[in-house]
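Standup notes, protein team

Yesterday: finished cleaning the Cryomyces minteri set.
Today: Adenylate kinase isoenzyme 6 homolog structure.
Blockers: none.

Input for Adenylate kinase isoenzyme 6 homolog:
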Amino acid sequence: MRSAPKIIVTGTPGVGKTTHCELLAQNTGLRHLSISAVVKERECHDGWDDEFRSWVVDEDKLLDSIEEEVQQGGCIIDWHACDLFPKSWIDLVVVVRCDSTVLYDRLAARGYSGKKLDENMDSEIMEVLLEEARESYDEEIVVELRSDNSDDVEGNVERIEAWIKQWKRDNSGADP
């Protein structure tokens, strides 16, 4: 019997996914499953991409690596994409969004430049990850939240915490 939900927090790099996940994990006891860390630590990749300064993810190996862990519930998946995770794995999809000017400054401060900066900015402006979430999951489990400043993050975390409490009430005794 699963006693806690399975949540994915997704969005363009720099919107605040990890900040949300860390606070949620701290406040709720759910596990923060950083896919970036999993890819690196469990070698779920096909090597390094110098142009984008990131690992080339082997999605099948990644899913195999985390499936049992996710199925237990009680995890918050932190990743910039969501469509690779099966619908049955996820109870809530949180798409974190950010004003493009704020996002540009955040990414520039991280040292993003050139093609990587342009592609991430285009992705946010064109709502690519929001659309991906809406196409991949049932509409009622996809939530879009703004993350332009710390007040937004605090309010978002409180909202997700309230959702978790309600999920636990609604699913006490539910099958995994």
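Follow-up from PR in the comments: The radius of gyration is 16 Å.
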